[in-house]
């Protein structure tokens, strides 16, 4: 009985141990399940962390790229600014210098260290403390309005007297960023000095030209008096020669002496008179041409709107006999009205058409074509003929004084020079195209 009781006791203990083991196993399984869950969570967290790290790496890479691009853009912009041969400043709203280009440092003899971060007015020992500049910036910069070609004239301590044009603009930046001002400085000192000198020289040239015109006018007038006397005395010589011939016809003269006298009376004296007459005629034409040039130079222009169709008809009417005599075909297109002096424009086209008529080809029917039209800021007229043309080597000389295409032709070589002067007095231009044997073409621009 006691043995049976002991067995039951041992069996109970064994069952308790088994139950404890089962409970422990269940707890182990729960812990193991929890560990698996934790491991899964850790794995997920690790994967998420890896993803975050990858995103962070990509963001860092993009940020570095953006920083590099921004640095390149800044260097690129600075290199452009430094290349510009004009002083440039970038200022903040308080007029402190953010940056400047190399040309600013060079022109105003200041260093980057003494410039960046300092007030504009304090630069270079306060040499930018300019009252006009202060007043300008005080009025315009609070509203960040643009400044265009504001002129400042100032005596700088280091670089002397300067005349400058200032231009200012706000630099566009992203919203929320500090507003900046770009100040461009153009040194126009030399150009203004050159301009004043040019104006002085032009004025002096005008005075000299006026004096020359007066001298030319007086000289030609003074020369005409003795010329008229020579022409008069020559006619008297011709009349006296005829009277002398009549007297000699009534006188009894030895045949040998008569022959000698006839040689003198019929050949030598008439030849001398011919040379005198020819020379005085040339001199007379020359003086008339010089007088015409003198009048052209002194004439005051009266600009008005010209009916060019009417004016051209007047010009052609003056050449009616010569046109008919040479059977020249004249073609005139519809011409635009232009602004000019009536008398001088008439003279211009008279000389051009007269020139074409003078140099026709005898073996070919003559033809002169006149056309015109409106162009930008004015009118262009063209006079074209089928005459003998001009050799290439002569074309540069045609508008010179006393230049003649054919010395045998009448005239003294002033006509084309007058054409050039009229065009220049109207602030226009003239161009010529020609080939020997293929005629001439003159293109004239008359501005509004």
Automatic annotation (TrEMBL):
Coiled-coil segments: 14-80, 191-254
Catalyzed reactions per annotation: ATP + protein L-histidine = ADP + protein N-phospho-L-histidine
UniProt keyword Coiled coil, yes or no: yes
Lineage, top ranks: Bacteria, Pseudomonadati, Bacteroidota, Bacteroidia, Marinilabiliales
Gene Ontology molecular function, alphabetical: phosphorelay sensor kinase activity
Keyword vocabulary terms for this entry: Coiled coil, Kinase, Phosphoprotein, Transferase
A GO BP annotation: regulation of DNA-templated transcription
This enzyme's EC code(s): 2.7.13.3
Location of the Histidine kinase domain: 218-448
Name of this protein: histidine kinase
């Amino acid at each position: 009985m006691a043995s049976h009781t002991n067995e039951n006791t041992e069996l109970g203990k064994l069952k308790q141990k088994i139950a404890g083991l089962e409970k422990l196993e269940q707890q182990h399984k729960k812990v193991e399940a929890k560990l698996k869950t934790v491991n899964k969570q850790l794995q997920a967290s690790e994967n998420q962390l890896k993803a975050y790290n990858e995103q962070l790496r990509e963001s860092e890479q993009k940020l570095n790229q953006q920083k590099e691009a921004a640095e390149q853009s800044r260097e690129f912009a600075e290199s452009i600014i430094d290349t510009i041969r004009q002083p440039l400043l970038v200022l903040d709203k308080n007029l402190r210098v953010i940056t400047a280009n190399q040309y600013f440092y060079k022109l105003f003899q200041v260093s980057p260290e003494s410039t960046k971060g300092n007030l504009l007015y304090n630069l270079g020992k306060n040499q930018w403390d300019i009252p006009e500049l202060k007043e300008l910036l005080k009025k315009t910069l609070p509203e960040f309005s643009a400044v265009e070609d504001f002129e400042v004239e100032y005596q700088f301590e280091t670089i002397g007297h300067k005349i400058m044009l200032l231009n200012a603009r706000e630099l566009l930046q992203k919203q929320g960023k500090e507003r900046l001002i770009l100040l461009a400085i153009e040194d126009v000192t030399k150009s203004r000095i050159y301009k004043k000198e040019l104006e002085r020289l032009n004025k002096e040239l005008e005075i000299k030209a006026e004096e020359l015109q007066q001298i030319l006018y007086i000289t030609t007038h003074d020369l005409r008096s003795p010329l008229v006397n020579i022409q008069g005395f020559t006619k008297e010589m011709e009349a006296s020669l005829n009277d002398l011939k009549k007297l000699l016809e009534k006188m009894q003269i030895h045949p040998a002496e008569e022959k000698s006298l006839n040689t003198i009376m019929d050949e030598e004296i008439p030849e001398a008179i011919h040379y005198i007459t020819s020379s005085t005629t040339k001199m007379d034409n020359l003086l008339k041409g010089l007088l015409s040039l003198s009048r052209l130079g002194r004439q005051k222009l009266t600009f008005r709107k010209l009916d060019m169709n009417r004016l051209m008809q007047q010009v052609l009417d003056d050449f009616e006999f010569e046109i008919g005599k040479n059977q020249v075909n004249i073609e005139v297109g519809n011409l635009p009205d232009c602004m000019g002096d009536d008398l001088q424009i008439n003279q211009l086209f008279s000389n051009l058409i007269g020139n074409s008529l003078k140099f026709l080809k005898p073996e070919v029917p003559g033809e002169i074509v006149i056309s015109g039209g409106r162009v930008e800021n004015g009118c262009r007229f063209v006079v074209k003929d089928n005459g003998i043309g001009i050799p290439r080597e002569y074309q540069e000389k045609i508008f010179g004084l006393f230049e003649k295409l054919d010395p045998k032709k009448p005239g003294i070589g002033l006509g084309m020079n007058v054409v050039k002067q009229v065009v220049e007095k109207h602030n226009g231009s003239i161009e010529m195209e020609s080939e020997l044997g293929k005629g001439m073409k003159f293109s004239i621009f008359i501005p509004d």
